[in-house]
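input
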Amino acid sequence: MANEKNNSSRQIYTNTPSGVHEQIKILQDRGLVIDDYDFARDFLEEVYFHRFLSYSVPFLIKGQKNHYQHNVKFSTIVKVYEFDSQLRSIILGAIESIEISVRTQFISLSWKYGSHFYLNHRLFKDHKLLNDSIERIQYQMKSSSDFLVKEYFNNYMDPQMPPIWSALELTSIGQLSKWLLNLKHDEDKSVVAKRYQLHFSVLQAILDNLTIIRNLSAHHARVWNQHYDFVCIVDDRHQSISHALCDGNKIYSVLLLITYILRTLGIEKPFFNKLVNLIEVYEINVAEMGFPLNWQQRFSDVMNGK
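output
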């Protein structure tokens, strides 16, 4: 009955597409200052109207979806758009480093179990999940141009899959998170997590959260002020990141966790410096990103290993 009631209140969409000049007129009617008409036209010819609107939400009068705050400029919203693009770029760069590092920790399990241990069902809890992971790698191999993968199939017929160090070249951080979750033995999970001075359950939560941001960033979605449904886990051993693991649902939490992981790898400063520079150059209101008032001290504590 609830669905029927909801359906009865829904309308038929009849809006017609608007040209760029009409879009600018709509923005002006809503109170947005078009400080450079030619720039606005050129921008909207390259970035579709709905995408621009999603970035303008913080500049609307509270409680009104079609009226901008006093004296908000088109160029100001574009600055936020550009900031978000740059932010996604540095996030993806950081996640790439983390992804490669986690792959390396998985490969270290081959010293114990051999080059093809990832095909051994006895080492994993959920056999269906393992098969799904293997099938995904097989699918990716079909279109892969990776030299090591091609070399393996040109020279070997058994096992039917390449060794772990070649197979993991085709895995994303989301897939790595599933591999970690699926390992049967806690001591093997601990081997993977040891590099980051974390309990494996905490690393699992961090990888799951990074997967959310990685997927959004890779598909050019807005990340700077979104609300996220992050995995929550308590970590009493690391006070500097404990609040970010459970208390936050904004991008600040992930940025702090990225900084922590990069610190364990000794490469946190370039990431943090780029982040601070972006915030300063684009004059971003970091409160929209979930940053606390003492955010600089929070990052400093992480980078100093507190």
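quick obs: The mean pLDDT is 91.
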